[in-house]
């Protein structure tokens, strides 16, 4: 591995840990046991990339590398052992989560382009890589996906993908494309949380009681 | 594209729009934002075909054609802009939804046969193509799948698949097979809604409080 | 088929029936109709192996053999026709369910190794084969997955996988490996139910109301 690859892999592991901790914390709120918490943490961390790889018809990324399962296990141990301390680190975890999100989007975009797919699909796959894990987490804990009601999590992914596209059109190389994409994801998310940005809500249909159909 | 292909693709897009609108409307009842509504609409429209293609191990149909994502976006715009008007179109949407269901079943059956699989699998894949989207929609909005309790949605799919089989045994060509299948799906669904047909319910086990294990 | 293959296939069908009945019974508690119960039963029985095969990128096991769908149908008929009688067979069903679990784990482990994957992945795939069906069942009926809160279902799978590994390291042949794995799964589950073993629960974070994030 080159220094650059080690750097990127470290960022990805930071994201994996942050995503796993998000799943483990929400499992704790649902009184899951350690196994349940580990499973939810793992699905949060690798669920998006797994569906992406199945749809791209390429080997599922975490199957050739024990690290993803390993750091999820370490995340669980950390949450169990350092709970009180972790509470004071909420901001740090949020930063890690945002860095992870950015990494996941860049990875999803680049992998899709690598297989010769068009840019619109790459943006979608980047968004799936970043945002699906949290949706699956909420399904597993039997909540309505948080992301459908607030937060501009997915919007940040899409914005990052669009900036990737712009940089590509502008003729920049892959490193600039990826970096600009990552910075955009991080910036949009931080700004959104800071200023309370949100996407407009869909108002209910007056004659729907429970959604109809 | 031949005239016939354009006709079939148009029917498929009509179905996609109808399925997407069903997902978007139910998202509105759950107070989702636009992103959540778009996601639920998209999954409702393409979810069944996606699992089918993953299991058939062939390229996922919507990945090579932006139209599916595009018309889902147009459906969202339509629901936001024309809400009051759409309410008066409930019957039209129901008809579109039924046409779409029929198209999805025919596509699922034919694609499975194309890959050399037996007829029972083709019927199952046709049913998955038509009915899974609505199940995934209900999982995403955290409801019990509607289709498990009422409606003969899936039964219409299975009936269509069986008629496809009959026409095949009787020696008719693919156009007759597909048309007879589609007409059957539409007829069974319309008749079922009109006469209030339903499938018998499974009565509870007396000693199960919450289902046991 | 050799006698041995018939024996193993019979065990697998016993497991399929037991898993399907578990899904059908929980559907009854949710007032599903026959179609809903069949679907939930089927997903409980084949869901784990389906995701395993998609991730291993090999043909999905039940697509080349009607028996899985067939015995699920027979399970539904049995539940409808023999409900009162089945209630008295709870222990028998539990035994069948445990035998099925053991079979599913062994199949998952061996299939993964067959494709040249490392042992840690085989253990994970064995666990997914055995335990995912029940998780999908609980998602379909809109409950929090039972397995995340109690039962050492998944732990039994993992223990079985580890014993498989030990037998492999110790140089035993595949029959011994598989048998020792199956016996371990069965023993751990029976002992866990008998002695009320459980995995420690994750305590809630004091500042999380509904999980935060």
Count of folded domains of chain A: 1
By oligomeric state, this entry counts as homotrimer
**Regions with little confidence, pLDDT below 50 for 5+ residues of chain A:** 208-213
Averaged pLDDT of chain A, please? 90
Could you describe the largest sheet of chain A, including whether it forms a barrel?
none
Element string of chain A (H = helix, E = strand): HHHHHHHH
So how many helices of chain A?
Answer: 8
The shape of chain A, in one word, is globular
Distance between the termini of chain A: 54 Å
Q: Quick one: which chains have the greatest interface?
A: A-B, 36 and 36 residues
Rg of chain A, alpha carbons: 18 Å
Share of residues in helices of chain A: over 70%
Topology, number of strands of chain A = 0
Q: How much strand content do the residues of chain A show?
A: under 5%
General description of the model:
3 copies of one chain form a homotrimer. By secondary structure, chain A is mostly helical. Chain A has one domain. Chain A is built from 8 helices and no strands. The first copy, chain A, has helices spanning 3-29, 34-56, 67-81, 83-87, 90-114, 119-140, 153-169, 174-195. In chain A, helix 1 crosses helix 5 (90-114) and helix 7 packs antiparallel against helix 8. The radius of gyration of chain A is 18 Å and the shape is globular. Chain A starts with a helix and ends in an 18-residue tail after the last helix. The B-C interface holds B 54-55, 57, 117-118, 120-121, 124, 135, 139, 142-145, 147-150, 154-155, 198-213 and C 22, 24-37, 39-40, 50, 54, 57, 59-60, 63, 66, 69, 79-80, 83, 87, 139-143, 146, 151.
């Amino acid at each position: 591995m080159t220094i650059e690859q080690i750097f990127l892999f470290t960022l990805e592991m930071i994201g994996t840990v942050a995503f796993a901790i998000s799943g483990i914390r929400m499992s704790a709120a649902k009184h899951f046991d350690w196994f349940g918490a580990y499973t939810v943490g793992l699905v949060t961390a690798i669920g998006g990339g797994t569906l992406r790889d199945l749809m791209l018809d390429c080997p599922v990324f975490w199957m050739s590398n024990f690290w993803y399962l390993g750091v999820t296990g370490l995340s669980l141990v950390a949450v169990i052992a350092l709970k009180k301390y972790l509470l004071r680190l909420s901001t740090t975890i949020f930063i890690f989560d945002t860095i992870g999100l950015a990494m996941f989007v860049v990875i999803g975009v680049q992998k899709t382009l690598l297989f010769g797919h068009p840019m619109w699909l790459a943006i979608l796959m980047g968004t799936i890589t970043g945002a699906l894990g949290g949706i699956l987490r909420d399904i597993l804990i039997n909540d309505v996906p948080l992301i459908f009601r607030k937060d501009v999590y997915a919007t940040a992914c899409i914005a990052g993908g669009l900036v990737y596209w712009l940089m590509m059109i502008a003729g920049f190389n892959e490193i600039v494309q990826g970096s600009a994409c990552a910075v955009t994801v991080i910036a949009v998310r931080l700004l959104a949380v800071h200023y309370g940005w949100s996407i407009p809500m869909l108002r209910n249909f007056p004659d729907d009681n429970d959604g109809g159909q």
